Amino acid sequence: MSSIGIPQWLAWGREIQALAQTGAQYAANDYERERYARLRAIAAEIISEHTVLDFDSLDAAFAHQIGYATPRVDVRGAVFREGQLLFVRERADGGWTLPGGWADVGDMPSGAVEREVLEESGFQVQASRLIGVYDANRLGQLEVFHAFKLVFLCELEGGDARVSSETTAVDFFGPDNLPVRLSGERTTARHIRDAFIAWQDPSIPAIFD
Predict the structure, then answer these.
(1) Is the dihedral of CA 22, 26, 29, 32 positive or negative?
(2) pTM for this prediction
(3) Which parts of the chain register pLDDT below 70?
């Protein structure tokens, strides 16, 4: 295992892909671009050998990544009602998670989480404070890309429970009856614990990895 808790082959593949993407952005000639394209292909080969993802799809996905390579940003909203925490059930795997998703280019972080909560749960919220910034080495749908996760404490302002194209259920859970099955790395026991702590004591500073 690598030092950040993911398989070493995945850490190597990610790093090589990032180096290839960044190198291609600043390549001065065709020779350099060809070398970086080969590095990109090696990264795709490494990951393809250890997953069910085929080489051509991986290489094409990597080729579409341009500019300086940076982690993606995943935002999650911790919304409480009468001491219970809001969860949605993911259509993709049937697991429960705090509502959220990938931030879009042009989003403010707070705006991104407010939009995601509304889209996935039907509830209107306002982000009130940052609970934590987490390293999010996902091993799920987008396992080849590194991500950071921002979890916000959000105030419930209105709306009604409503499922979406990505969710099949919306519900609130107390600390003693939390969902047994969580949705991969979207939400972990650590995120849930930190959310309850932040809700109970607003003076606690934001957590970061």
Answers:
(1) negative
(2) 0.79
(3) 1-5, 137-143
